[in-house]
């Protein structure tokens, strides 16, 4: 039945990754080179080669993900392995460095790798945490249905607003036309709009009602209820956009930085072999 | 011809009159007179003209083939049955009404068929060799033989109320687009009425009048169409209402609340057609019964009880165009005394190919003698049945089908025997079936996997019939259904309830067993009621629920192939739970006392039943603790999972909304996704996306005119490229998983896309595509033929998407709660 990538196949890839890490650590501990440990010893080369191949393999995930016709192996296998082996790469690569960090190209490659892995870890967190929040927030509706409900509330608001004088009418029209969901990255990620036309309309209509004693109370209060409802719906829609953005945003770091890593890695390998 | 008659003839031609002047009467004489110029009559005329036989084709209107002429404009006419070859001087292939009629007009003229328009026959008298046909105009035609090809549509059923001759009452509708902004009442509850009403509703206010409370006679597709139209308010429907009278501009109706007067601009009554019985009988032809729909009987050469008078086409019981055209050709040959072989003979010869060089008629006789279930068929029915079937001559020991295959064809044994391995664990435990028996009916009835493996015996000859042909046969020949149900009953009890119990011991149970059907939600029995029977579920599935704290809590889901109700009988207690049909369900109701007697006489069976009972009680205890699990079962059943064989379920707590499932679906299916991930309901984090459930008895398959929807041996329901885009399946699917779509344009290769941006990349572009040919139906085929199975599941990175079979629901539900 349903299984998350972490527990997938009874932690098969966690076991693989643990084995790899353990083997690296043991080898590192037993290894006793003449110089302080570094990438140039036989173990350094071995770990470096393993690390480089792993980076290539991990990046291949992006290609494999898009090969929809390929093979029997489920993508979940790939992702589960990608996550666990990706995390173990930190150990393997760190041991490869022999803890020698300097302001140079080699450490840049290492640093990029760490950033990529950490962004990936956030990705795992996001993938495990946000889907449930999103489902809870949606309450069985799709985003499209949510938008439709908002549109219906809008229509009703406008029908009432025409009876209530110019000021109110303008406010409601403003709420209909200028309410935004999503927008810039920051707007999406914050899940809020500090300058929301609907909030503005809601608070001003409230004051308006207090000021105008002669207004048709029934219509006014109905309008307030509707705007309040719209504001609730907007909160949910923005929360939905926010959660989706949180689930997507890390990929904008993870993927480009992994290409940067690839470039740095290539430079690192070439410099090591040709300019030693 | 004397000089005087020649003079008269000239005068007649010059005057453009078609009657001889003066009181002297000269009848025209022909070898064959054909009445009616529909596909059957026209084809007969064409063949007679081709052979140079003197003939006349009499048509009462001013054009050929009035029935097809009156089809709705632009209607697409099918050429079914596909396999039947056309044997006619005229050509015919599927196309629009206009193409077909134009083609026939040209060919009739080209073949120099002697057509006489506006020639309505009033009476036919005389006998073989000397018939006399009296026309309405008063003309007399004599002929040696008469072919009656008048069809049924010339005689439309009228409303039969006062005032119905108002000029705006019509019984046909050619072009719905001709009318706009009118109030139109459509009378009738059949397919034509529904199609017309919905088409007219686009630019008119339409009310459809139904004498009854539902649209029972319509095809499934039209049923869905009218139901959704009424629901959406596209048109109004008045149920239990019948016409009372027509006044110009007003339709007086009899409604359940009394008389109503509805102002109308137009009334369109589509009440079907009946054989023009009075006329046919006046010619001396006898009808077999007084039923208004009854048709006259004809011989193998289409001759009626009046020698020399032949009946072909719809009036003879063959309403399909191709059949009618073939009969037109053949009847001319028969009249000329040529005994030609039927058009389907080569097809049958091909079917019988495996039997060596044998005569088709001999094989048919053998089949009818050896296989009792087919003995009640007429020769024509048997021929049709055999064309759809396959003859197998498997070698002894060969596997006919395996347990758990998803095939649904039906087998009859013509010769030899087969062995059925009824026990999966013990291949030695077999039941032998002999010549004349049949098997495979259980899969056909339940829509589930094969329950046993079948091995061919020595010298075995089998007929394999596809599900569709078998269902057609069951529906048209009552004896076949009776025979099948009787045999199936014993086998179902043996397979599902009492394996290893000999047939003789089951006699008591079988004796009192009855077949019962339950609509979705109907109660098989209530909690607290006395237990007097056991239900064996033949098809469909049920839920078991108990009242706990005033609420019905579902504690189990039981699919076909199981029984319910044994607890009360074994424990001698009232019913402990309520059992409801989850979907349309058919059960075998076994009498309680007979069941108890069976248990008493059979210790092994008693043990097995008790063991199952204990399992079920243990399961009940688990489920009663988890009312949420029961609600989840109920939710899944409401989503049609109860009739599914394989359904896609998404765990929303794992789904990251990447839509890779949809992209994978599109990428593996020519650019069009058959799955809508986001649409569809969610309960307790389980999301049922809009995607095919591969139902046990697929609704989509019910009414596919092109026979393009099939079930593969692995269970996938798929649409092949025979699809003509009629949209019936889309309307029939209660889960809205089929949609009509244009073919997507070809995508560029990866490099081309990367380097030159020539089109959408992998997984991109889910937009509606531009027109490329005709729309065809698109649905999930569970990635049939793709290694590794469903690509949506394979492409889900987080394991949120899985496919589940009914057997696994309990595991799914109990794991989650």
Q: Can you tell me the residue ranges of chain A where pLDDT is under 50 for at least 5 consecutive residues?
A: none
Overall pLDDT level of chain B = 85
Largest sheet of chain B: 7 strands, mixed
Overall pLDDT confidence of chain A: 91
Using DSSP, what is the number of strands of chain B?
41
Number of domains of chain B: 5
The number of distinct helices of chain B, counting runs of at least 4 residues, comes to 24
How much of the residues of chain A is beta strand, in percent? under 5%
The coarse silhouette of chain A is: elongated
**Helix/strand/pairing category of chain B:** alpha+beta
Major sheet details of chain A: none
SSE sequence of chain A, one letter per element? HHHHHHHHH
- Unreliable spans of chain B: 1-24
**Helix content range of the residues of chain A, please?**
over 70%
* Beta strand count of chain A: 0
Separation of termini of chain A?
A: 53 Å
What is the alpha-carbon Rg of chain A in Å?
Answer: 28 Å
Overall shape of chain B = globular
Topology-level CATH name of the largest domain in chain B = FAD/NAD(P)-binding domain
How would you describe what is shown here?
Chain A starts with 7 loop residues before the first helix and ends with a helix. Chain A has 9 helices and no strands. Chain A is mainly alpha-helical and 276 residues long. In chain B, strand 1 (28-35), helix 2 (39-51) and strand 2 form a beta-alpha-beta unit. In chain B, strands 1, 2, 5, 6, 7, 8 and 17 form a 7-stranded mixed beta sheet that branches. Mean pLDDT of chain B is 85; it is low at 1-24. Chain B folds into 5 domains: 17-154 and 276-335, FAD/NAD(P)-binding domain, CATH 3.50.50; 169-269, 3-Layer(bba) Sandwich (FAD/NAD(P)-binding domain), CATH 3.50.50; 347-497, Jelly Rolls (Sandwich); 514-625, Jelly Rolls, CATH 2.60.120; 637-816, no CATH class. Chain B has 817 residues and is an alpha+beta fold.
